[in-house]
# Entry
Amino acid sequence: MEPLNQKSIERVVSQKALQMGNSFPCQICVVGFLCGVCLTSLFLAALTSFGSFQFGPILFSTMSMANSSGNSTFPNDINMITRSDCHFKLKETERLWDSKSSRERDNEEKVSLLYSAWSAVLNESTSGGKEYLQKHGISGSSLPNAPHLENCKMKTELFEYLDKRTGTDVFPPWTTWKGSLQTFSVAAFNEQMQKLRHEAASEGAYPPWIAGSDEENYPMTRKVQRDLWIHQHPLNCSSPDVKFLLTDWERLPGFGIGAQIVGMTGLLAIAINEGRVLVTNYYNRAHHEGCKGSSRSSWSCYFFPETSLECRRRAFELIKSEDAWSKGIVTTKENYTTKHIWAGPTPRKWGLPWNYLQPTTDLNGTLLASHRKMDRRWWRAQAVRYLMRFPTEYTCNLMNEARHLSFGKLAAKVVLESLAGDWPKENSAKARSGDIDEYVWSSHKPWVPRPLLSMHVRMGDKACEMKVVGFEEYMQLAGRIRRHFPHLNSIWLSTEMQEVVDKTREYSHWNFYFTNVRRQVKSNMSMAEYEASLGRETSTNYPLVNFLMATDSDFYVGALGSSWSFLIDGMRNTGGKVMAGYLTVNKDRFW
# Structure
């Protein structure tokens, strides 16, 4: 076989190259390579335009394997790609990014619009909500429901219905039916409903403010709450057998809101032990412009009153009677020592249920099975649950505002993702609500991002009463919960210290929510000074919002050495949260 000459070799190589060039994978590789060259050349050209670097021209013809005659060894379409499609691909990429950015901006604008529309409705009485909706072309019928907000007026009317007797019945209209279903009535159903109510009353119906099963609450919670309501609401307040304990809330400057509530649980214990109806009077924390009318300076600004209006009137009549004083029909806080109020005997009329509390509190990795004050922990939980059994419309509105500020935009995003049309352009009027909306679904709690962990970090002047630890230790406990529940990523944080809020930036893998209030910068400031700097209304409203958010959260991390955390623990343990557990950084100093 004759050896191949130079021409023959060139022909063979050219044919192989042509075959390779016609293959689709090769074309793609070349296109990618040449686009890279385009980008590189643009980058180098930009550098040379500043005169910092000098490069010779890069000739694409040398990369396209042209022969001496100027005819390319690649097909013409590949040459076209090398000369023009590199720029085309860059433009196409830019358009894709612009389109994506445009969609994101459009979605963000819709979220903001829906959030603002809900804000306008929420503040309709003061900010002209209807005008805002009209300005943006949104009708009330096309505005989606806000899942994180409650109908406070309707809720309060239901609570009023459930907190008073009908006629001569021993109990209010409590049944085994839940929420608004207890008010459901049709003509053909009325007789059966009345029968159901009478049967429930005769068998001892349980109060509707207790959630969860018996195993998910402290022992005997349902019975105790029913008995407390009956004790505090005698059938005839004017009967000579009915005695009263009339008292103001503690108002000494050093008493925080938690201490005030703890003191009142002690007075309720005295009233139960002595067979008296507890009647509360002046509540200094409700002495502000937010509490209107008769609720000003009264516990009833925030929660339903502890007794009926008839018993309140009777107690205030008797307080003026010397005969009632001499016979002991009426007493006040001044009749009892501080020790009796704060460390008096726990009511024993229900036996010793604290002896079998489920050990669900964790301290240093160990469950607290027992301690010296089990009875006090159980009783304070029952007492605070009763005193806070129903929030008022004012408190409901405070909670709506807090949820809207914290979760409103997230709720708007969730709602918009569920809509079929291009809201508000293509969104048709909402379908008319049916019975199931009004009587069944209305009983569901307002939406929050779940699971939600509540954390109360108490520092500042509390060091004189308990062991104070840093934010890092609280977050370590949060991490323990997350290891067992990896889908947990949201924390509702309550604290008086700004340094704690600042440290949340170090935990980017958590979503933190908290009330927008000025916090302490100096740790040596007393709580009394801090509250005075905020004013009466703010210093009362924001702690109660935090308290109720913690009560309803899925998990809780706190410090049992703090009265506030102690009370939150009690509300959770009488609100169906026993089995959620409680992780504490310390224990009560009296245990």
Residues 219-390 form one domain. Residues 1-14, 44-84 have pLDDT under 50 and may be disordered. The first strand starts at residue 243 and ends at 247.
